[in-house]
From TrEMBL, chain A:
All residue ranges annotated as the ABC transporter domain in the record: 3-233
EC numbers on record: 7.6.2.9
Species, as recorded: Nocardioides marmorisolisilvae
InterPro entries per record: AAA+_ATPase, ABC_SmlMolc_Importer, ABC_transporter-like_ATP-bd, ABC_transporter-like_CS, Mo/tungstate-bd_C_term_dom, P-loop_NTPase, Sulph_transpt1, TOBE-like
PROSITE patterns reported for this sequence: ABC_TRANSPORTER_1, ABC_TRANSPORTER_2
Name this protein carries in UniProt: ABC-type quaternary amine transporter
Gene Ontology molecular function terms on file: ABC-type quaternary ammonium compound transporting activity; ABC-type sulfate transporter activity; ATP binding; ATP hydrolysis activity
Length: 315, 269
């Protein structure tokens, strides 16, 4: 295990930001801390990095007791949501910062900076100031700067949160590839479930200062341990008093055994998915959501006003 | 930008220009023309007068020392106020504006009460130890420092607040010690705010009159400064010298402004 967090508590005044958090983060993996805003993700990450002190509990990084170690001695790379670029230094100087602090020989620093700038595709921008870069480029520079010190763990706090949707998507795919190349233990915070599912090896779901569930993306998606995790990881709808995913309901155009009779109230096509709002033909006349593929909709000739029979497929 | 009628814009422009001309340009312009009424004779005479030269020296010494003190304390207090939580922070932050709101005369009188050698709170003891504050340079430096105290802080604090502490934390996580963070990150990011603050404090210190006049005792050839010598000469009907020194004071301010304009990097707003 690369990071061991035991019994960590943190309060801000009366507000409990972290409530007895225990967590082991495996070496060499990409772990996502996922949860709603204000859940305590950044606080936990900052405690790991030493940017914040826990009220109680301990943090062990790569076998070293780090609870009382100041940030500069933890050898942790930290990437901030808003880049935290050193505005008065060139891109190359930013990346070189940690190495110069460590008094590495000039030639070695130069070589390492060139290598890292190549890795993050910023070689031609080495002499620019951060203000002359785009948001995505600035964040790649911040990443190179954090990687330069060869950190034992790399921590990213919503690294792509300030970027537009397209750049976000590009950068997270790029982060995944970079991680496969560099293999440094990485923890990143996000409140975007799609980002976590797409990029992470392991996801830690945090809500109201507590860990709700830890597991691989598949485990969390297929076997959420509670309704909170289930509804946070994807769309849900209520059927027979249970939470199910709208695409885990099979739709039939003719009566079937155990089929729940319903009528299509509305439909909305989103790309290849078709969302159906169906009214259950029981006493309550509840409306629930079902998602089918365009192909299913066409083959069954589903349309508004049709009667259908629903069968939950999962579990 | 709000669209305004061209006529209204013209009126507004005339108003602003008129205001500045009546209050600043014309009066200062008159000082300059009076100084050079008879070519350089007024300035030459002023520089030939040892008391005037001494007063100019006093102004230079007192301003430079008080600006240095305000530089060190101003930057330290700004960092404390913005980056640290401590008991009494709000009170301190409110106190800093006192020198801007209190008349310099009051500052001078209060220093006199505390440090005068006969019945001042500290003054008597210090006088016994052979240290003279009132009617001498240390008192004048204290008065000037007090009056210019908020200027560096007022420039630096907003900049520190705006840049936030992310850069400093990033540097810490990259292995920098607090001192290295200060030298490599914090000070370079507030460099220009410090320069503006110092120039403003310098201009204010050179021009200080009320507090210094009371504390210095205005002793000719000893504790007299450029501003107090202007008043003395003017009242003693030596107007050419009064104008000449006023011109020098105004000239120093213009130099300050030009220095800032030249130093200021193009891409900073
Ligand atoms: N310095 C602080 N002082 C007081 N309260 C704080 C402080 N830092 C965080 N909090 C509170 O602690 C809670 C958790 O904050 P945290 O920043 O860890 O949330 P988060 O999960 O990162 O949320 P987001 O996704 O919005 O960034 C929030 O309710 C926040 O208001
Ligand atoms: Mg956060």
């Amino acid at each position: 295990m690369s990071i061991e967090i035991t019994g960590v508590n943190k309060r801000f005044g009366d507000f409990v930001a972290l409530d007895n958090v225990n967590l082991s983060i495996p070496t060499g993996q990409l772990t996502a801390l996922l949860g709603p805003s204000g859940g305590g993700k950044s606080t936990l990450l900052r405690i790991i990095a030493g940017l914040e002190n826990a009220d109680s509990g301990s943090v062990v990084i790569e076998g070293t007791e780090a609870t009382n170690l100041p940030a500069q001695k933890r050898n942790v790379g930290f990437v901030f949501q808003h880049y935290a670029a050193f505005k008065h230094m060139s891109v190359a100087k930013n990346v070189a910062f940690g190495l110069e602090i460590r008094k590495r020989p000039k030639a070695e620093v130069k070589e390492k900076v060139e290598e890292l700038l190549g890795l993050v595709h910023l070689s031609q921008f080495a002499d620019r100031l951060p203000s002359q870069l785009s948001g995505g480029q600035r964040q790649r520079m911040a990443l190179a700067r954090a990687l330069a010190i060869e950190p034992s763990v790399l921590l990213l706090d919503e690294p792509f949160g300030a970027l537009d949707a397209k750049v976000r998507k590009e950068l997270r795919e790029w982060l995944r590839r970079l991680h496969d190349e560099v293999h440094v233990t990485t923890v990143f915070v996000t409140h975007d479930q799609e980002e976590a599912l797409e990029v992470a090896d392991e996801i830690v779901v945090i809500n109201e200062g507590r860990i709700e569930q830890i597991g691989s993306p598949d485990t969390l998606y297929d076997a959420p341990s509670n309704d909170f995790v289930m509804s946070f990881l994807g769309p849900t709808t209520q059927l027979n008093g249970a939470l199910v995913r709208p695409h885990d309901i099979e739709v039939f155009a003719h009566p079937v055994e155990n089929g729940i009779p319903a009528r299509i109230a509305r439909e909305l096509r989103v790309g290849f998915d078709v969302r159906l709002w169906v009214e259950l033909l029981d006493a309550a006349h509840e409306e629930i959501q079902v998602t089918v593929t365009r192909a299913t909709q066409r083959s069954l000739a589903l349309a508004e006003g049709n009667d259908v029979w629903l069968v939950p497929t999962s579990a | 930008m709000v669209r305004t009628h061209p006529a209204l814009r013209l009126v507004l422009r005339l108003l602003v220009v008129g205001y500045l001309v009546m209050l600043v340009a014309w009066p200062v312009g008159l000082v300059v023309t009076h100084t050079f009424d008879h070519g350089f004779t007024a300035l030459d005479n002023a520089f030939a007068d040892p008391n005037v030269v001494h007063a100019l020296k006093m102004t230079a010494i007192v301003s430079v020392i008080s600006v240095l003190i305000n530089l060190v304390f101003g930057v330290t207090i700004s960092i404390l106020l913005v980056r640290y939580e401590f008991w009494g922070k709000r009170a301190l932050s409110a106190l800093i504006d006192v020198p801007l709101s209190v008349s310099p005369v009051v500052v001078g009188l209060s220093l006199l009460l505390v440090y005068n050698p006969i019945n001042g709170w500290f003054g008597a003891g210090l006088a016994d130890a052979g240290i003279k504050i009132i009617f001498s340079t240390p008192g004048m430096i204290m008065a000037t420092t007090f009056v210019a105290l908020p200027l560096v802080i007022r420039e630096v604090v907003p900049v520190l607040e705006e840049i936030g502490d992310d850069q400093e934390w990033a540097a810490r996580s990259l292995g920098a010690s607090p001192v290295q963070v200060l030298r490599r990150i914090t000070l370079p990011s507030i460099k220009w705010a410090i320069v503006y603050g110092v120039v403003l404090a310098l201009a204010r210190s050179i021009g200080e009159f009320g507090a210094v006049k009371i504390v210095s005792g205005n002793i000719v050839g000893s504790t007299q400064t450029a501003t107090t010598v202007v008043e003395e000469r003017y009242q003693n009907f030596d107007q050419p010298t009064a104008y000449a020194i006023s011109f020098l004071l105004a000239f120093a301010s213009v130099i300050c402004i030009v220095v800032v304009a030249v130093l200021r990097p193009k891409n900073e707003s």
